[in-house]
Backbone:
């Protein structure tokens, strides 16, 4: 039941200058690695809970986790999965959204510019640490939300059932930007926008709506 630190698909300096190599190294090799270690430690402390190899099924079934380790699992399984999803949603390449995703954005927010404003606004409003998310509703429209700490929109009753699928997340913990941007979260958000992997987001969208 050992979860492992998922390697990045690109070198740590690949997102420069928007996201500097030192930030990526510490973020991935220290912070994310700690969530992996702490998740394993929590699960190992409750062997009666059995073997677990699927992050998402833990996320979706937190109620099944023994109460004495539930909070640790909640914080750390979110800490692992959210980071994997975050890194996979970024890329050094210049990418474009699919026609289908663009159409969903226009239907849901009016325009891509308004979508950006809404998502980055949601990320700015998140008090303290957390995540901004783009979610697909069952009808194929999109919405933006944010979650505190390492919570994930799929944590069901723990944060309110969303009936949705995430297609993009942005880490707004200070550790994601503080070395380069200090207190300037807005500047980090404006810059990370250029590194979003719209091909990946579009693939996730297609999968979520079953195209
Ligand atoms: Mn983080």
Residues:
């Amino acid at each position: 039941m050992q979860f492992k630190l998922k390697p990045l698909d690109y070198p740590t300096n690949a997102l420069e200058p928007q996201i500097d190599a030192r930030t990526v190294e510490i973020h991935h090799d220290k912070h994310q690695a700690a969530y992996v270690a702490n998740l394993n430690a929590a699960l190992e402390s409750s062997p009666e809970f059995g073997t677990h190899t699927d992050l998402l099924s833990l996320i979706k079934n937190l109620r099944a986790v023994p109460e004495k380790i539930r909070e640790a699992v909640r914080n750390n399984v979110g800490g692992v999965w959210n980071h994997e999803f975050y890194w996979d949603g970024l890329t050094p390449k210049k990418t474009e959204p699919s026609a289908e995703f663009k159409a969903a954005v226009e239907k849901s927010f009016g325009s891509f510019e308004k979508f950006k404003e809404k998502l980055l606004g949601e990320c700015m409003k998140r008090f303290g640490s957390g995540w901004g998310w783009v979610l697909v509703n069952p009808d194929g429209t999109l919405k933006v939300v944010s979650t505190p700490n390492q919570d994930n929109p799929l944590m069901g009753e723990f944060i309110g059932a969303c009936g949705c699928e995430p297609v993009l997340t942005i880490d707004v913990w200070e550790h994601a930007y503080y070395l380069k941007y200090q207190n300037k979260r807005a500047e980090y958000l404006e810059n990370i926008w250029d590194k979003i992997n719209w091909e990946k987001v579009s693939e996730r969208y297609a999968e979520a709506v079953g195209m």
